[in-house]
Amino acid sequence: MPTATAFGKTTAGAEAQLFTLTNAHGVKATITNYGGTLTSLMVPDKAGKMGDVILGFDDVSGYQSPEFLKSGPYFGALIGRYGNRIKGGKFTLDGKEYTLAKNNGPNTLHGGKVGFDKVIWEAKPGTSADGQTLTLTYNSKDGEEGYPGNLAVTVVYTLTNDDALRLDYTATTDKATPVNLTNHAYFNLNHGAGKDILGHEVTLPADRYTVVDATLIPTGELKPVKGTPFDFTTPHTIGERIGQVPGGYDHNWVLNNPSGMHAAATVYDAASGRTMEVSTTEPGVQFYTGNFLDGTLKGKGGTVYGKNSGFCLETQHFPDSPNQPTFPSTILKPGDTLKSTTIYKFGVRK
């Protein structure tokens, strides 16, 4: 069974817990019930040496510090009710306009001022045929952050015996509501040795991406990546063309063949030999390269998190879908169940 330890007190006085999942190969994932946050993931490099590939903090206070809240990197957290941005903090559903908190310039980002990343989830450790599990549940009340409907959310983390971390999301509602759930882990496959992720090689099986305006809201255009710095259909290092993208990568890629479980990304770090394969049931992935990290945050063991010190692959529906009728719908209706799965599988190339 997974083990549980104290992770410190939240600013509201709640006791946060840290759960450690371990598999037969000694791979370990630690998750706190505060924000359902993945705080560390120990996987082997090409020499068999274990290393932590996740950016995060040693206790819950790091995730609540004024510096962290101001910069808002959402390290490792479960994101909801709506991952990514909603234009102008507004959407219309069934003829009614809903107003959300604006927490990202003129827009709403990652669920609002108090998203799923800032609440205590109910946690239940367990085991399955695939490996050790942590089942997290949260009930988001009707009107919370401006969203309609009582939303019941369950997320199951499974650390599998083939060195993968699997996330299974389910949600039900009693009123139609937009839902877009994801995890905001920052990865560095050479964490501790490599200061940044610019040398990581990335492949994204996506022929198009969503073009965005100056506030990172989609214009509605799905643009071909061919001949642009957004073309990762063949492997490229992150740093190779990042200078051609103003501000760095922070865009949603439209995944090819989006039915069932499908490939979302492959990442390879030559220095450590570590590989990560991401597969998902979601139609898109937000690839973000830690552009806003600026060295003000100190993480586990005093590690300074500067620009590009981690990357995110947030599997998701597209940003601003409630206001974009041509995008795949994110509206969950009463009687329906949202089901979504994402798997991060680790390995090495020697």
Q: How many H/I helical runs?
A: 2
Tell me the strand percentage band.
35-45%
What's the helical proportion of residues?
A: under 10%
Oligomer: single chain
**Strand arrangement in the largest pleated sheet:** 11-12-13-14-29-23-22-17-20
Task: Kindly name the structural category.
Answer: mainly beta
Distinctive features:
350 residues; mainly beta; five-stranded antiparallel sheet; 2 helices; 29 strands
Describe this protein's structure.
This protein is mostly beta strands and 350 residues long. The chain has helices at residues 66-71, 238-241, and strands at residues 3-9, 15-22, 28-32, 37-44, 50-52, 78-79, 85-86, 90-93, 96-99, 108-109, 122-128, 131-140, 151-160, 164-173, 177-178, 182-183, 201-203, 208-212, 218-224, 236-237, 250-254, 262-268, 274-280, 284-288, 297-298, 304-305, 312-316, 331-332, 338-348. The strands form eight sheets. The chain has a nine-stranded antiparallel β-sheet with strand order 11-12-13-14-29-23-22-17-20. It has a five-stranded antiparallel β-sheet with strand order 1-2-3-4-5, with no helix packed on it. It is globular. The two termini are 32 Å apart. The mean pLDDT is 97.
Describe the structure in brief.
This protein is mainly beta. 3% of the residues lie in helices and 43% in strands.
SSE inventory with pairings:
Elements: E1 3-9, E2 15-22, E3 28-32, E4 37-44, E5 50-52, H1 66-71, E6 78-79, E7 85-86, E8 90-93, E9 96-99, E10 108-109, E11 122-128, E12 131-140, E13 151-160, E14 164-173, E15 177-178, E16 182-183, E17 201-203, E18 208-212, E19 218-224, E20 236-237, H2 238-241, E21 250-254, E22 262-268, E23 274-280, E24 284-288, E25 297-298, E26 304-305, E27 312-316, E28 331-332, E29 338-348
Antiparallel strand pairs: 1-2, 2-3, 3-4, 4-5, 6-16, 7-10, 8-9, 11-12, 12-13, 13-14, 14-29, 15-28, 17-20, 17-22, 18-19, 18-21, 21-24, 22-23, 23-29, 24-27, 25-26
